[in-house]
Amino acid sequence: GLAFDVPTRYTLSTDYTSDNHTRADRMWDSLSLDSMVIAPTIDWAREMGLPDSWDFPWDPKRKIYFVKVYHQLHCLKNIRRAFKQLLSNKDHPLPIGHVEHCLDTLRQDLMCHADDTPMPSLQLVNGAGEGQIRQCKDFDKLVAWTKHPDRDACYKRLSDDRPPLRSIDRYAFCPADSEHLETMSRYFEKYGYPEMNEAS
């Protein structure tokens, strides 16, 4: 895995929590989930001790795995969206079961990792850790790792508000140099390409 080698200042006020809701929405929307899925070879998955998973649609020698941090981000984005819908009294909010699943997923992840870093506080309320330097992983390196030809799943999240009718439509984005491009193209030429929705 990636090393914790990027010094990062922890701050309580970011553009993600901006009073300018347009700016905050833009920041949350910019968190791409397109690297959520990888398609490593079966041999690699076995070497890593991973349980069996779904077949990659374009190559029977590969399996599909979801990268944990992207599932966590997906959950955070869904919880935020449900919260905003609740505040604005939307008629069709995100199903409560999905929100509860996301909350419990994050609870399990937090308790599994059980970060025991002592956080300083100069105020009694909402100040723990402000300005503290943490050692973090390089997120850009993770994105590059997921998109490497050995693992790229030709995946794009598309929209959670308007999910594709077919799950396979999320795997319609092989890059021009992908060894899977021809197989993918044949499938979608036969069965039709997906509608292009922006991810959320």
Work out the helix count: 6
In spatial order, strands of the major sheet run: 1-6
General form: globular
Distance between the termini: 27 Å
Number of strands: 6
Strand content: 5-15%
Structural class by SSE content? alpha+beta
Q: What is the N-to-C order of secondary-structure elements (H for helix, E for strand)?
A: EHEHEEEHHEHH
Low-confidence stretches: none
Helix content: 25-40%
Biggest β-sheet strands, sense, barrel: 2 strands, antiparallel
Global mean pLDDT: 92
Give the radius of gyration: 19 Å
InterPro entries: UstYa-like (IPR021765)
Pfam families: UstYa
Family: Belongs to the ustYa family.
GO biological process, one term: mycotoxin biosynthetic process
Sequence-ordered SSE layout with sheet pairings:
Elements: E1 6-9, H1 21-29, E2 37-38, H2 42-47, E3 55-56, E4 59-63, E5 65-66, H3 68-87, H4 96-113, E6 133-136, H5 139-147, H6 181-191
Antiparallel strand pairs: 1-6, 2-5, 3-4
Architecture overview:
This protein is of the alpha+beta class and 200 residues long. It has a domain at 6-66 and 115-191. It has helices at 21-29, 42-47, 68-87, 96-113, 139-147, 181-191, and strands spanning 6-9, 37-38, 55-56, 59-63, 65-66, 133-136. The strands form 3 sheets. It has a two-stranded antiparallel sheet. The chain has a two-stranded antiparallel ribbon with strand order 2-5. Helix 3 crosses helix 4. The radius of gyration is 19 Å and the shape is globular. Belongs to the ustYa family.
List keywords for this structure.
200 residues; 36% helix; alpha+beta; single chain
